[in-house]
Design goal:
With 429 residues, this protein is α/β, with parallel strands linked by helices. Helix content is 39%, strand content 18%. The protein is built from 17 helices and 17 strands. The chain has helices at 8-15, 17-32, 41-48, 78-87, 107-116, 129-141, 162-167, 184-190, 217-220, 248-253, 279-287, 289-293, 298-309, 314-319, 323-339, 374-380, 406-428, and strands at 59-61, 95-96, 101-102, 122-126, 145-149, 155-157, 160-161, 172-176, 195-201, 227-232, 258-262, 273-277, 345-352, 362-371, 384-386, 388-390, 393-397. It has a seven-stranded mixed β-sheet with strand order 4-12-11-10-9-5-8, sandwiched between helices. It has a four-stranded antiparallel β-sheet with strand order 13-14-17-16, covered by helices on one side. Strand 6 (155-157) and strand 7 form a beta hairpin. Bound molecules: pyridoxal-5'-phosphate. Pyridoxal-5'-phosphate is lined by residues 128-130, 156, 201-202, 204, 230, 232-233, 262, 273, 356.
Length: 429
């Protein structure tokens, strides 16, 4: 009955009947328990309506970790978000409006990728980095051997391991070298008629230090078999701040036949897997049946194009944020909070690239230091603010918080502080 009346009819159009019924039922339950008056059900239910039809909740990332896997990796640029919105409707993703005939899917995205990496002859895009590697293995190495160093057989997270992924395509792994040292002769001895390619994987989420040796791509490309390089993070060109992070242009320049990467790590775009390389190999990949199973949707293609052609991404901005500017923002926040009676201090904070990139690099920054109990309160608040708990304190590192959200972050802290005061008052009673 309530559903038919305003404001619920509008809400049904916006959110769907199930979400609206759920809000009404919760309000009715409250009335039954005597928590609200029966006349207040409609008003209470209206207040319980969600703002959107997704239960995903947007959070302010105050962890200082730029590519935070649990928080969805790369936040998209405004340009990429606008592209997503365009792509949400009917679009010419596979259609030529000029001639009225079918056109190559995602052609503008591929052109943008090739413009960004001129060293690549051709490019292909799949669902994510793991899919890129799986497609390369399935199309080029099923029933044959992939030669790979024992120091590069990595687990990428959540229990998923690249060797298992590669073997699942029907390829065989020929492991060479040891965990800490692999030399070019190890690869050379393993090369034979059964070799499909040498795989060079960038160990993107850990570092081995001490008595170590790994073979650079340019030494592998002289062995007479194709070299496939998994750079991981998706850096397309060199970034001086991340000297040890490989990039696609470099590895292709060193002679790699194919390079694979993720779209939502350092590239700062949507989840996607990039394959860049020779026309021959890319054509083989594109024609393999798996290519259809691994293809990205129009939303990812649109956002990836806008990421490649658009302004500096939020990821690039966060990685390169000026420490002096970060400190000024933190100082301003601390000043304001202190004025509200909150015990807040400015402290140095080490940011990280995170998400499988530049594992040895610490990003110099600053954070608001609060009592540890703020961590849970802020996480559960609105907006949800995710900080970092360190040495018994809650740190809010502003590196990954858009500057225009500083005020929202401050009101979240102020609201949490008020709740603490309130709790303390009630325990005194
Ligand atoms: C992240 C990563 C992958 C997996 O990419 P996803 O986009 O997460 O599927 C594969 N290899 C390396 C080296 C990586 O860093």
């Amino acid at each position: 009955m309530l559903l038919a009346g305003a404001p619920f009819a509008d809400a049904v159009d916006r959110l769907g009947a199930a979400a609206v019924k759920h809000a009404i039922h919760r309000a009715q339950d409250s009335a039954r328990r005597g928590e609200i008056a029966p006349e207040a059900v409609a008003h209470t239910a209206a207040g319980l309506l969600p703002t959107t039809a997704t239960t995903l909740t947007s959070v302010l990332n105050a962890t200082g970790v730029v590519v935070h896997t649990n928080l969805g990796r790369a936040p998209l640029s405004a340009a990429a978000v606008a592209a997503l919105s365009t792509a949400a409707g009917y679009v010419d993703v596979e259609y030529d409006t000029e001639t009225g005939t079918r056109a190559r899917r995602g052609r503008a995205t591929l052109a943008a990728l090739l413009a960004a990496v001129p060293a690549a002859e051709d490019a292909h895009v799949v669902n994510n980095g793991a899919a890129a590697l799986a497609l390369a293995a399935a199309a080029l190495a099923a029933g044959r051997e992939i030669i790979v160093s024992r120091g590069e057989l990595i687990e990428i997270g959540d229990g998923f391991r690249l060797p298992d992924l590669l073997i699942s395509t029907g390829a065989r792994l020929r492991e060479v070298g040891t965990t800490n040292r692999t030399v070019v002769a190890d690869y050379a001895h393993a090369c034979g008629p059964d070799t499909a390619f040498i795989l060079k994987i960038h160990p993107s989420n850990f570092r081995v230090e001490g008595f170590t040796h790994a073979v650079p791509v340019h030494e592998l490309t002289g062995l007479g078999v194709p070299v496939v390089g998994d750079i991981g993070s998706g850096l397309l060109a060199r970034d001086p701040l991340l000297p040890d992070e490989p990039n696609a242009a470099d590895w292709l320049g060193q002679g790699a036949a194919l390079v694979t990467a993720s779209g939502d790590k350092l590239l700062g775009g949507p989840q996607a897997g990039l394959l860049l390389g020779s026309t021959g190999l890319i054509t083989q990949l594109r024609r393999h049946p798996f290519a259809r199973a691994l293809r990205p949707d129009k939303l990812a293609l649109a956002a990836l194009e806008a990421t490649l052609t658009g302004p500096r991404t939020p990821v690039t901005q966060a990685v390169h944020a000026d420490p002096t500017w970060l400190r000024a923002r933190v100082d301003a926040a601390v000043h304001e909070l202190t004025g509200l009676g909150v015990d807040a201090r400015t402290v140095p904070s080490t940011g990280l690239v995170g998400g499988g990139g530049a594992p040895g690099v610490s990003l110099e920054g600053w954070a608001v230091r609060l009592d540890e109990r703020y961590a849970a309160a802020l996480r559960r608040g609105s907006p949800s603010v995710v900080g970092r708990v360190e040495h018994g304190a809650c740190l809010l590192d502003l590196r990954c918080v858009p500057a225009e959200d500083d005020a929202r972050l401050l009101s979240a802290v102020a609201a949490a502080a008020k709740n603490f005061d309130h709790d303390e008052d009630s325990t005194c009673e």
